[in-house]
Amino acid sequence: MPLSPTASPLSRDTWTRAAIVLIVGCAVLRITALAISPVSLYQDESQYWVWSRHFDWGYYSKPPMIAWLISLSTGLLGDSDFAIRLPATLLHTGTAIFLMLGARQLWDERTGFWTAALYLTMPGIWLSGFVISTDAVLFLAWSGGLFALLRLRADGSWGAAIGLGFALGFGFLSKYAMIYFLVSTGLAISFDAPYIGWMAQQTLGRNPLGHSGFDIASFGMGLFSCTDKAQLEFRMAMAGYEAPTNHQMHHALADSVAQGHTLAWLLNHAECDQQG
Asked: Is 5 within 8 Å of 11 (Cβ atoms)?
């Protein structure tokens, strides 16, 4: 009997499919509404279109990304209200995807679905999907940077680091308010015990927070004398470690059981090394 509605793989797949259908469905609905909308451009949108006709690294009051995107869209579809506003819908669609992925990284597929649903159905976001503005570009950069940051914190991969750098660059080329992403990230890091412990260990040679600043992977890397999780997984496999076959990702109880299994194996391996 399943422990919860999110315990079975079928349930997780269902939430993922539902999120995809929701995001794509909203995008199609918005694009259709844009195509038949009789509402003409307002002043700021017209100004952005004028900018798009002359490439530059910056304009009167904004960075260049919004003009570049409008130029790309009108270059493909021609100069029309629909083509000028189309990037707004696509940008919000991308933001919903990144928010869904971030929620899945932190919690599970069900949370990812409801995060995307909440974002796409907010009145302000729904209205913004029909208006080309720098906010839509900023939201995509911010949500993409947040997801990359979560991935970087989880596995420290180069792909996540490159993705974060790309999101920051995209954001600063979109709206100067992207500086608040760096400020808020710095504030969040200052309260992140695992990161503080890791930095203290690297710079001071000791962790003032005690062992709570480290996780099971850090213990394993120390035990096997390796520097990243990929090496750790390889060396553990060579030493005979077998991951639980029924491990259900993003499920709190299942994750705890799997981590306990891994920690017990590492402790047993360390004891065997000492006895040997």
From this structure: yes
The mean-pLDDT minimum among 32-46, 121-135, 200-214, 254-268 falls in: 200-214
Residue 90 lies in a domain: yes
Q: Which two tokens stand for residue 86?
A: 């189309």
Do 30 and 105 belong together in one domain? Answer: yes
225: left (phi over 0), alpha (psi -120 to 50) or beta: left
Indicate if 126 and 37 belong to the same structural domain: yes
pTM tops 0.85, yes or no: no
Give which of 75, 53, 76, 78 is closest to 64, Cα–Cα: 53
CA distance 109 to 104: 5
For 33-63, the pLDDT digits (tens) are: 999 999 999 999 999 999 999 989 988 889 9
What tens digit of pLDDT does each residue of 70-127 get? 999 999 999 999 999 999 999 999 999 999 999 998 888 899 999 999 999 999 999 9
What is the number of structural domains in the chain?
Answer: 2
| Domain region containing 182 | 9-189
Classify residue 97: in a domain, yes or no: yes
Residue 117 lies in a domain: yes
* Residues 204 and 242 occupy one common structural domain: yes
User: Which own/partner pairs from 251-260 qualify as long-range (CB within 8 Å, at least 24 positions apart)?
Assistant: 251/3, 251/4, 251/6, 251/7, 251/108, 253/3, 253/4, 254/3, 254/7, 259/216
Are 139 and 213 in the same domain? no
